[in-house]
Amino acid sequence: MLSNYEARFMSPMPAVAKSNMPFSRSCFYNVKILLTLPTSIYVLKRYILYGYIYVTMEIVLDSNVIYAGLYSNKGASYQILKEVRDEKINPVLTVSLYEEYSDILSRPPLSNVIEENEIEGFLDFFCKKAYLQDIFFLWRPFLKDPKDDMVLEAAVASQSEIIITHNIRDFEGLEKFGIEAMLPGCYLKRKGAG
After folding, report:
1. Going by C-beta distance under 8 Å and a sequence separation of 6 or more, which residues neighbour residue 17?
2. Where does CATH 3.40.50.1010 sit in the chain?
3. Residue 3's Cα: distance from chain center in Å?
4. Which residue ranges in the chain fall short of pLDDT 50?
5. How much is the pLDDT for 193?
6. Is domain 58-193 in CATH 1.10.287.470, yes or no?
7. Which of 182, 138, 143 minimizes the C-alpha distance to 160?
8. What is the per-residue pLDDT across 5-55, written as a single tens digit (0 to 9) for each?
9. Which residue of 13, 24, 138, 144 has the fewest CB atoms within a 10 Å radius of its CB?
10. β-bridge partners, 43
């Protein structure tokens, strides 16, 4: 059973009438709230908007999703990037992931279609939208590919529940951390149903 404090912040948010919105849409404040429970402490990242608290979930994007989304404007990977743009997804970024993204996006055939300055512009945009996570503990080697271990470490450190990737088989064993690897299309379907 939830305490009054927990129920207040975890219950569904009431609908907000437009006439009751005194601030512009850009009036967001990123805060961390500590909820002390008998067995553990949870750090929840939330947005406060117009006096209500909306929960946002950090999600780690594998580099193949970003590559596919930039290469083609059709498909679920492109929709994921649109969700990042519209702040419906809060991506997690680490220094090692940034380096991986930078390396992957400079490879052909994408580098034949998009110029280097456009890739740098996208990475700057992505950095502004992402939650920068410090890594204090390495889980290597846990997965087959060390580059996938970087994605796992970002998810564990940020307490993300989802990794969006096109290589589901490379992320076997994530259940141990309470993390699920999902295809971009599956994530969008689940989000649409929820």
Report:
1. none
2. 58-193
3. 29
4. 1-54
5. 62
6. no
7. 182
8. 333 333 333 333 333 333 333 323 233 333 333 333 333 344 444 444 445
9. 24
10. 34
